[in-house]
Design a protein that fits this description.
Blueprint (H helix, E strand, L loop, with lengths): L2 H42 L34 E6 L2 E8 L6 E2 L13 E3 L4 E5 L15 E2 L4 E3 L3 H10 L14 E9 L2 E7 L8 E7 L9 E5 L7 E4 L8 E10 L9 E2 L6 E6 L10 E6 L2
Parallel strand pairs: 2-4, 3-5, 4-6, 5-7
Antiparallel strand pairs: 1-2, 8-9, 9-12, 10-11, 10-13, 13-14, 13-15, 15-16
Amino acid sequence: MKKSELFLILHTFLFMIIGANITNASDTLQERRERRALIALYISTDGDNWKNKSGWKEAPLDNDDGFALPGTEDNWFGVSVSTNSGITAVVGIELSNNSLEGSIPLEIGDLIDLITLDLSSNKLTGSIPTEMGNLTNLSEGNLNLKYNALHTSDTTLADFLDTKQKDGNWQSTQTIPPKQFKAEIKNATIVRLSWVPIPFSYYDGEYEIYMVNSNPEKDNTLLYSTATKKVDYYTVTDLDTNNNTYTFIMRTKTEKHNFNQNTIYSEFTNEVIAKEIIPVDDSGCFIESIFCRQK
């Protein structure tokens, strides 16, 4: 055999080995990235207190992250994986009604092969990360975020999620803070609070209205709980005449119902300050009422 032929054979053989190693490294990186995303979801939603968390921390555990060994993800409750052309990817997460509590982590956007995602009927709160817009492989109708306390101000993301959401309009079933929360002083002892009721008002619940305590070491004072989530105002009376500034916050509460066995609380609104301006002139014959929103 000529040296040139031997060199060509050896070159081809080495190329195949290096190429295989690069492919395996790439596969490992993808699997590790998706594994990290699953673990982020577990941690962010208080996985240790899930109703069912079988398989996620089943011994033996990985020394680096403390979860079941790599390659066992298909045995983690609620997780489905698929292998195609030697590449393993997470294609399904179904954790409905499983006592998830917390926020959706931004790492969810790394699960780009997801076809099904069901996080409905839990106690998820907060803003949905924009990274969820990466989940373009979700099948229409295979996303379910219903009956949580989730929101987003990103209209592009909201519209995208609607196209994937089962029955559409995921926002219509969220327990969120009421909008346009305002305060107006009527006189020295009365303040009228008003807001726009949330769309999800057809299951039992209420708005909780608090006066913010000026001492951060003390709890805020619960002033009132409305009878339903359709109420749009409340009048605070018997205020201290020695205080001319009042700060309020409120949140929404949805009682447990047939589609969610958890009591859900929204985040609090921004603080609203009602301030009574008393003129310093000699007449003292008028009081101007204003309200402002503290960012």
